[in-house]
From TrEMBL:
Residues 22-157 form the CcmH/CycL/Ccl2/NrfF N-terminal domain. This is Unannotated protein. The keyword Transmembrane helix applies. Keywords: Heme, Iron, Membrane, Metal-binding, Signal, Transmembrane, Transmembrane helix. The keyword Transmembrane helix applies. Pfam families: CcmH. The chain crosses the membrane at residues 116-137. GO terms for cellular component: plasma membrane. PANTHER family: CYTOCHROME C-TYPE BIOGENESIS PROTEIN CCMH, CYTOCHROME C-TYPE BIOGENESIS PROTEIN CYCH.
Amino acid sequence: MSRPTTRALNASLKRWPGWLLLVAVVVVALAIGATRSSGPMTDGDRIDSIAQRLACPTCDGESVYESQASAARGIKQQIKRFVEEGTSTDGQIIQYIQTQFGTKTLLVPNASGFDALVWALPAFALVVSIAGLTVAFRRWKLASDTVPTDDDRAMVAAALALEGELEQADGS
């Protein structure tokens, strides 16, 4: 291994702790943000939260929360009834509405089973792409750090000599 390549490798290894620290901070921040509870919800907040996750069965691309259609108002009343009874969780209410109107009523896919791929695949593709680009850029940088050999110098000298001869021939 030549000297510049060793230096580049050492410099690269010295940057790793900083990158690892950055990744750790991002992962911890995402974990805290995803699991943090904003406190107990009122019944109204709960109804709105559930209605925002469900699509109106008669509208195109509108949530039950936003829609003024009669079907959406009926679903909101059903959600309100379940919440006021206090016997069903949000997931159970959504599951009930889904069985009544079909899977097209979910605006946000489930985070389990096949639907989890909808969430995980883009993130995985991004990580793999960044890793691939990092490897490619490092290879290109290491390739540019190589010291020219005597054959390389002779080839450049011959090309320059040929270029000089061609310029003299054109100038005569």
